[in-house]
Amino acid sequence: QVQLVESGGGLAQTGGSLRLSCAASGRSFSSYDMGWFRQAPGKEREFVAAISWTGGRTYYADSVKGRFTISRDNAKNTVYLQMNSLKPEDTALYYCITSQGTRPFGSWGQGTQVTVSP
Fold first, then answer.
1. Beta-carbon-side half-sphere exposure of residue 87 (alpha carbons within 13 Å)
2. Could you tell me how far CA 64 lies from the centroid of its own chain?
3. d(Cα 30, Cα 78) in Å, to the nearest integer?
4. pLDDT digits (tens, 9 = 90+) for 62-115
5. Can you tell me whether residue 105 is helix, strand or coil?
6. Which of 6, 15, 87, 96 is the most exposed place for a label (fewest CB within 10 A)?
7. CA atoms of 45 and 57, how far apart (whole Å)
8. Nearest 5°: CA angle at 26, between 20 and 28?
């Protein structure tokens, strides 16, 4: 089983950028698709982006397409989420998780908080 730890969240201004990282333990990391999801206060958790195990396919929610980029480095057991042109509505707790395409499976970690000020 893959254990995941998210980092890189923080406070950003509207229009700013942040880069989230998700470090995985376990030798099977490179066998899994990976996804980023987020949950804003009072809202359900939602899909943000996903990447296939090879890195060859990526998927994005319409709300972040063109602004966010997901990538992975299987040699470092890490998946990234580069977030540009941030908006206040991007404020949420961000989680990475193993996935099957855009559908999460596995255990949720602690997440990393992203707050975007107006």
1. 9
2. 11
3. 9
4. 999 999 999 999 999 999 999 999 999 999 999 999 999 899 988 888 999 999
5. coil
6. 15
7. 22
8. 95
CA–CA distance, 72 with 111 (Å, rounded to integer): 18
78, 72 Cβ separation under 8 angstroms: yes
Query: In whole numbers, what is the pLDDT of the chain averaged over residues?
Result: 95
Tokens in use for 72?
């992975």
CA dist., res. 115 & res. 43, Å (int): 15
- Token output for 67: 């602004």
Between residues 31 and 90, the one the model is more confident about:
90
Beta pairing partners, 39: 93
Instruction: Place 30 in a pLDDT band, splitting at 50, 70 and 90.
Output: confident
The tokens of 8 are what?
Answer: 């890189």
